[in-house]
Write a structure and sequence with these properties.
The complex is a heterodimer of chains A (300) and B (264). Chain A has 300 residues and is mainly α. Chain A has helices spanning 3-29, 37-53, 59-84, 88-107, 131-154, 157-167, 169-174, 179-205, 216-230, 236-259, 270-299, and strands at residues 111-113, 207-209. With 264 residues, chain B is of the alpha/beta class. Chain B has a domain at 2-87 and 170-186 and 201-263: Rossmann fold. Chain B has a 6-stranded mixed beta sheet, with helices on both faces. In chain B, strands 2-1-4-5 form a 4-stranded antiparallel beta sheet, with helices on one face. The longest helix of chain B is centred in the last third of the chain and has 18 residues, at 181-198. The chains are: A mainly alpha (300), B alpha/beta (264). Chains A and B meet through helix 6 and helix 7 of A and helix 2 and helix 4 of B.
């Protein structure tokens, strides 16, 4: 793997760290399996691309607007679930398939190239250091700042209410927490992060595409599972860091399988390899304790 | 303080499983009274508690707490007036949060903290001070996850959480039923001490006739969705479990056949 490729992988790994943080909020904190992300990731990409290319917006507010659109998507999913009692998974599926059509409308077509356009990465151009080094650095700063903001939020009164609403809804309600409102806020936040990732990915990759959301749910979930299985997660800050780490590891597994010609792997095997990564982590984790118990029994 | 009037509750309405849980219930609990409710399975005692807490919406009738008509209030809104301790120790506390965070959550019920940090020095000190009452050493384990505590410890913490803040009504739903006899007595004595100290208006549902007569100021007995017996003061003080059984037999013309009621 060349340095260029390595830094490219780091860049994508950082961007998908945001997707992992979103999955952390929905799956781990709210216990709400949210499939909206399959639509909100390309929604963010489409919004950013259109605002930058067609409307001539500055890339920063365009990226922010993309995140807000994502918030709206998550809010709708939670609204369907909370207000109309539609099953959570189904609400997410409904919103994500609607978003597929909406994204085609937004872009007036299946994709929107961003080549030559001003992007958030233009800010670090012309400093004498190649962009492929500065872009991941810029992203690392943004993503770490977002991680820390999320950590802070989860320690506020509101953030703790959200954690309680997910962990024990009956108890949370008995303690004055409006559980439905916490779902609306949490899903909004998670999809804002996912759409932000989509917006950044489009600007890094050079195009927005209506199909780029396929598999995002698996990437997010796998990142959370892999990261939280490997690293210690005693505190919130550790847990969010583990999600970012998991996303990075996931991208490296993808890059590895794309480069592993010597093992007889083809680029098309990438999904298989990443699925194996998740299985190996899960099995490894459970058998570690299992093996430990077995050893103890033999020794005593 | 609590005024339940003409409340009717039907479960599985307009299905073959339709059953009436409460029939035109009227129950007034004056300020500062500790009421115990007894009854066999399906008598409507837990349902009446759920109607007060907001888990069950009545078909008709009115629920007034502290002078406010709360009939249409959702649970979380009622929690500003009403505290609750559940039967299952796992329900009353949040096991993924620390003892301190659980405490802060209960505290936020009457004083929401919004975007301020959930935990500050004041809350930490208050939590430690309240937890000292338990004499379980929990004040030194504030940052332990609640999931690490035993059932009895969790129930004691739930009780403290429910009586933190400014709510004046305490609902206890068989909160000692899942504990061993020794721990159950510890939690009951703690309940009595706190209720007396804070002069709370309390309603306790119990399966044990002895417990119902031993604790509190007034006892009502439910049967098939109605109150069939209501005693307080001297009449209640002189009462034994056997008297209660005799009364039940006379009024209902049938033997009470719920083992838990007799053995508890």
């Amino acid at each position: 793997m060349s340095l260029y490729e390595l830094l490219g992988t780091v860049e994508v790994g950082l961007i998908f760290g945001l997707v992992a943080l979103g999955a952390f909020i929905t799956f781990r904190i709210l216990d709400f399996p949210d499939l909206t992300v399959e639509g909100s990731f390309p929604l963010g990409a489409a919004m950013a691309a259109i605002l930058i290319v067609n409307f001539g917006w500055n890339p920063w507010p365009a990226t922010l607007a993309a995140a807000m659109a994502g918030f709206g998507a998550g809010f709708v999913t939670a609204f369907l679930n909370v207000r109309f009692n539609i099953l959570h998974i189904l609400s997410g599926i409904l919103v994500s398939i609607s978003l597929y059509s909406i994204n085609l409308r937004i872009m007036s077509g299946p994709n929107k190239p961003l080549l030559g356009a001003h992007t958030i990465f233009s800010a670090v151009q012309g400093w004498g250091i190649p962009t492929y080094i500065l872009s991941p650095l810029l992203l690392a700063i943004i993503i770490l700042a977002i991680k820390m903001l999320l950590d802070l939020f989860l320690h506020t009164g509101l953030g703790m209410n959200m954690r309680a609403a997910g962990a024990n809804p009956a108890m949370a309600a008995a303690n004055g927490v409006n559980v439905g409102r916490m779902k609306l806020l949490g899903l909004g936040m998670a999809n804002a992060l996912t759409a932000l990732a989509g917006a950044m990915f489009a600007q890094s990759f050079g195009a927005a595409d209506a199909y780029m959301g396929i598999g995002v749910i698996i990437i997010g979930l796998a990142s959370v599972i892999v990261g939280m299985s490997i690293l210690p997660v005693r505190t919130i800050a550790q847990a969010t860091l583990a999600c970012l780490f998991g996303a990075m590891l996931y991208r490296f597994a993808v890059a590895f399988s794309l480069n592993a010609d010597f093992l007889g792997l083809k680029a098309s095997d990438v999904q298989l390899v990443t699925a194996l990564l998740v299985v190996v982590t899960l099995v490894g984790q459970s058998s570690r304790s299992g093996m430990g118990k077995l050893l103890k029994r033999k020794l005593s | 303080m609590i005024d339940v009037s003409d409340v009717r509750v039907t479960f599985n309405k307009s299905t073959p499983l339709e059953s009436v849980a409460l029939r035109e219930l009227d129950l007034v609990v004056p300020h500062g009274q500790f009421l115990t409710i007894i009854g066999s399975n399906g008598a409507g005692k837990s349902t009446s508690l759920n109607v007060i807490a907001g888990l069950v919406r009545p078909d008709c009738g009115k629920v007034v707490v502290g002078g406010q008509d709360v009939t249409d209030w959702p649970i979380h809104q009622r929690s500003r007036l009403i505290s609750r301790v559940f039967q299952d120790p796992k329900m009353g506390t949040c096991e993924d949060l620390t003892i301190l965070e659980n405490f802060a959550l209960a505290h936020g019920r009457t004083q929401p903290r919004g975007f301020r940090f959930a935990i500050d020095k004041g809350i930490r000190e208050r939590a430690a001070e309240r937890l000292k009452l338990l004499k379980l050493g929990l004040e030194n384990r504030l940052n332990d996850k609640v999931g690490l505590l035993s059932g009895g410890q969790r129930q004691a913490v739930s009780l403290l959480m429910a009586t933190t803040g400014e709510t004046r009504v305490l609902l206890l739903d068989e909160h000692t039923a899942a504990l061993d006899p020794k721990t159950a007595e510890f939690v009951m004595e703690l309940t009595r001490a706190i209720v007396t100290e804070l002069k709370l208006t309390s309603v306790m549902v119990t399966h044990s006739m002895a417990q119902a007569l031993h604790y509190g100021d007034r006892t009502v007995m439910f049967h098939r969705g109605r109150i069939i017996f209501d005693a307080e003061g001297d009449k209640r003080a002189a009462m034994q479990v056997s008297d209660l059984l005799a009364l039940f037999k006379r009024d209902q013309g049938e033997e009470l056949s719920d083992d838990a009621l007799l053995l508890g």
